[in-house]
Design goal:
The protein is α+β, with helices and mostly antiparallel strands. Among the domains are: about 55 residues, no CATH class; about 60 residues, no CATH class. The chain has 4 helices and 3 strands; from the N terminus they run E-H-E-H-H-E-H. Helix 2 packs antiparallel against helix 3. The longest helix is centred in the middle third of the chain and has 25 residues. The chain starts with about 25 loop residues before the first strand and ends in a 6-residue tail after the last helix.
Length: about 170
Amino acid sequence: MSNPFTGSGRSAPGTPNLPTPPSGWPIGSYGTYEEAQRAVDHLADSDFPVQEVTIVGVDLMLVERVTGRLTWGRVLGGGAASGAWFGLFVGLILGLFTPQGSWLGPVLVGLGAGIVFGLVSAAVGYASTRGRRDFSSASQLVAGRYDVLAQPRHAEQGRDLLAKLAMRPPSAQ
């Protein structure tokens, strides 16, 4: 998988990887990323030079899906749980450097301190919002459509292959 902030990944050695607009001619347009991915997979199966293909998300949207209501109990429970994991990790690391047979003390101290720290940091963070954001959510960047581009020298061949894919019955795809 490539990094979206380093451009196409096809820059010459020694040149900085800066974000660049995609190049190529459109050979297909799809409503979902899965459909665009299936189209490129079909091109690869047909021995098309897929290293010259780009999938471009067009009409980008930030979608925030609300996952639930936040309450003090939920906030403090989440803070205690995340603090416990961190404290357990620190305690285990400290336990590795203690004399043989006395590792339990550092683990319990780390666990306790982690829980307290998690509770306090979660409470301070939630209290600072003063009720302006009493819900949890997950954000995702999505596109309205996904265009498949190919370099001009292979665009006609790519369009022909994708047209054949579109003419197949859904069960054969």
